[in-house]
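User: I would dearly like some help making sense of a protein record. I have put the entry right below:
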Amino acid sequence: MTRTTEACPWDLMDILQVFALYFFMVLLGSTVLITLVRKVLGVDPVALLGTNAVVLILSLITNVFSCLFVLFIVSFRYRQPVSALGLSLMSWKGNLFQGFLRYLVAFPIIMSVGFLVEFVSSSLGVMPQSQEVVLRVMEETSFVVLGTMVFLGAVAGPMAEEILFRGFLQPALRDMLGKSWAILLSAFFFSLVHLNLYIFLQIFILGLLLGYLFEKTGTLVAPIAIHMLHNSMVLTFVLWFKQKGGFLG
């Protein structure tokens, strides 16, 4: 099934509002949150809970508030059902099958690009920078915090990002620029928000696949499932490496 091309009711201004909130939370949210808690409650959340726990809370707040804002725009401002965002189980079995088949093709490409970037970086004498979540997982010693990190990275994060980048951003871009540019630009912005040049191309290729699946299937079932699968595989490898290095007791 190919996604229908009904006009998207939300526009560029709605997109700017949502992503202004998203980037504010990502870039300045931690400073605002910590300052607010210190003034209102008189305690230092970092000293009380630890840096990783505070980052987790902020990540959860960012994802929840961004998605709630999207739902407000779609459901209340434009009176659209959540299926307008691709939140539908229509033909979910077939869509999942399509997604897994295409991921089997894309995964070797993503891995090859990763090895190529690492080779070029090493040849230039540049030390590749690991993704922040990977560094935090590697250094965390609390199983509760670690388990929450894995849940956010493998489940909650992919769901929120697919609603934002494929369900909300991509249809508006499609109306303005067409399907191909919508897939390309949603993948570009998806890569950009991860704030890591070293993994930019890998995430961009993943984003292209997720955007294509959204257009092909008409729902977010396959993009969310493949995003979860990919992140779960990455986190499984990180946890294995962490355990092998003696970080998990």
Residues 8 and 211 are 16 Å apart (CA to CA).
